[in-house]
Amino acid sequence: MRLIATMGASGIKHKHTYLVNDKSYKSELSFMALAKANNITDIVVIGTEKSKESIQTVLDKNPNIEMVVIESDNVEDVFQKSLEYISQDTILDLTQGYRHYPMLTLLASVFLQNSSSKNIKDIFYAQVEDENCQAYKESCKYRFTSLIKYLDIANMARIINTFNNTLLTLDYEINSNEFNQIKKGLNSVTSELFSNNFQGSKIKAEEIEKIVNQILEDRSLEIIEEHLIHLKKELQTIQNLIRIKESKTLLNVSKYFRKKGILLHSITLLYESMVAFLDEKINNQKCNTYKDKNGKIKNSDVYKRRNCLKLKMGNCNYYLYKNNIPKCQKYSNLLRKIDELRNTSAHAHTTGTYQENLKEEIDKGISFLRPIIGG
Questions:
Q1: What DSSP character marks residue 300?
Q2: Where does residue 219 fall: left (phi above 0), alpha (psi -120 to 50 degrees), or beta otherwise?
Q3: Same domain, 121 and 216
Q4: Pseudo-torsion of CA 29, 31, 33, 39, nearest 10°?
Q5: Phi and psi at residue 17, to the nearest 5°
Q6: Is 322 within 8 Å of 332 (Cβ atoms)?
Q7: With the CA atoms of 201, 193, 366 and 161 taken in that order, what torsion angle do they form, in degrees rounded to the nearest 10?
Q8: Pick from 84, 93, 217, 334: most CB atoms within 10 A?
Q9: Which one of 223, 239, 255 terminates a domain?
Q10: 270 & 318 share domain
Q11: Are residues 252 and 368 in the same domain?
Q12: pLDDT at 368 over 60
């Protein structure tokens, strides 16, 4: 484990008391107390030449401390060096530091949140217990406060916003167990949706909603409450996609994917909702459209049966279609068009303005089918 600290230019005059998890450590410098509390010997201090001069006695006694000197006007170098020195399982101490150095080091840690070889284990700031105590004149008592939860909150807010907009889950490093459960759960919801396992996505969404409710009831993280409420609404939307009739479920999910801009899945499920509706309406009339070799109509032959129904759809004079499919000819024409668009999209034969045309056709299809199939 590595400890990175930023350092200002104030000289060392007194030993202070630092509280880490209510245990006291005496030291002239905050990062030395933090290193002792966590048994860390790999220490990097980032500061100016004056910073180095101010702690030279400490550096002389502790050869394991690496001092990184950067000129104060070289802002980019502070950021680059922070990126360079942050390693696997790094702790930051931002208690002391010259002007912009702590902020740039913190921003570097945020930048590396998605790195596989570098991560921030914790971020600390030592707050003085008695605000009237003057550190440059007397010994003071400080209490270390972990700031990592705020990095978790910022990352979780981005994860939630991205999921709500795109169904994608950002793979940010999260320390909070509850947030990690939500992140992993959202990944599972997306996997189930993209696999067309809508019952599975419903179950996963229900599980995550319970965790979200627990956090909201606890009210210990009010700062992210608004994001969690939006996530809860999104999870409820996913749960409500399922209907008793398969055609209605498929149409709902098609519309949902269209809203997210996931067009290939949207057009595919729009087509599937149409053939499912045919199957529901025609098969209920004991249609003999498809029978197996024993002359039976079985649920396991759903694909063959629906494909056969689709092929016969061109004949709207056939009494089963004529009497059971509303606006039969328009339905037939739309089915043919949606099938063509689905094939074109699936085989990557798209060019130019195809995407905008696809959006328009999906919208038209959903508008036409909603009154017929329902939702």
A1: G
A2: left
A3: no
A4: -150
A5: -100, 125
A6: no
A7: 90
A8: 93
A9: 239
A10: yes
A11: yes
A12: yes
Whether residues 267 and 351 share a domain: the answer is: yes
Report CA dihedral (148, 152, 154, 156) to the nearest 10 degrees. 180
The backbone region for 143, taken as left when phi is positive above 0, alpha when psi lies in -120 to 50, beta otherwise, is: beta
| Of 253, 249, 251, 278, residue with least CA distance to 336 | 278
Q: Are residues 268 and 359 in the same domain?
A: yes
Domain match, 342 and 284 both: yes
Of the candidates 158, 148, 150, 152, which has an alpha carbon nearest to the alpha carbon of residue 173?
152
Pairing of strands 65-69, 42-47: parallel
Q: How far is CA 106 from CA 22, 88, 102, 158, in A?
A: 25, 16, 6, 17
Contact 348, 240 (CB under 8 A): no
Element holding 174 (H helix, E strand): none
Cβ pair 20, 33 in contact under 8 A = yes
Report whether pLDDT(309) > 80. no
What the block records as the tokens of 323 is 């009497």
DSSP secondary structure string, 11-62?
PP---EEEEETTEEEEESSHHHHHHHHTT--EEEEEE-HHHHHHTHHHHHH-
* Amino acid letter, 96: Q
Identify any residues that bridge with 91 across adjacent strands, giving them in sequence order.
Answer: 3, 122
Same domain, 38 and 88: yes
Candidates 156, 169, 151, 148; CA nearest to 215 is 156
Mean pLDDT of the chain: 89
Q: Do residues 361 and 252 both lie within one domain?
A: yes
Got the DSSP string for 191-250?
HHHHTT-HHHHHHHHHHHHHHHHHHHHHTTTGGGHHHHHHHHHHHHHHHTT--SSHHHHH
Q: What is the pLDDT of residues 126-173, one digit of tens each?
A: 999 998 988 778 899 999 999 999 989 999 999 999 999 999 999 888
The CATH number of whichever domain residue 331 belongs to comes to: 1.20.120
When divided into structural domains, the chain yields a total of: 3
Q: Among residues 127, 146, 165, which one ends one of the domains?
A: 146
Angstrom distance (rounded) from CA 72 to CA 47: 8
| CATH number of the domain residue 6 falls in | 3.40.50.10640
Domain of 288 in residue numbering reads as: 247-373
Rounded to two decimals, what is the model's pTM? Answer: 0.84
